[in-house]
Amino acid sequence: MKLSEMKIDEFVKELASDSPAPGGGSVAALSGSLGAALVSMVSALTVGKEKYRDNREVMEKTGEEARELQTRLLELMEEDTKAFNAYMAALKLPKETEEQKARRKEAIQEATKGAIDVPLKTLEACRDVAALAET
Q1: What is the chain's alpha carbon radius of gyration, rounded to the nearest angstrom?
Q2: Is residue 78 within 8 Å of residue 2, measured between CB atoms?
Q3: How far apart are CA 40 and CA 34, in angstroms?
Q4: Which CATH class is domain 3-133?
Q5: Per-residue pLDDT tens for 44-99?
Q6: The pTM is what?
Q7: Per-domain residue ranges for the chain?
Q8: The dihedral of CA 99, 101, 104, 105: what is its sign?
């Protein structure tokens, strides 16, 4: 089951368990997605109000961008756990022969790149959410 499809209490219980994933990266992405949802909510509450008619286009665009970021951050929530699991799997590869050691080393390097890339993408998306919130 995808993390984003879990009930909140189930996700929290899984997070509190002895399982190393989901972890901080998934929580960061979820938090960013919730922030984007709040920006979207404010935009939706603003659009259509006579008092804010001069800002309608900006608020509609802000809401659309916030919804896109909300979806992207939920995807990153899943990707973070997958990247961590790939790293852990690479660490468990056999290392008896020189060929196995070389394959394992390469797999660890690739998995490390993925494990670094996802949090960076999460950070960038959260930065974009923060910028939208200032709109």
Answers
A1: 19
A2: yes
A3: 10
A4: mainly alpha
A5: 999 988 898 898 999 999 999 999 999 999 999 999 999 999 999 999 999 999 99
A6: 0.87
A7: 3-133
A8: negative
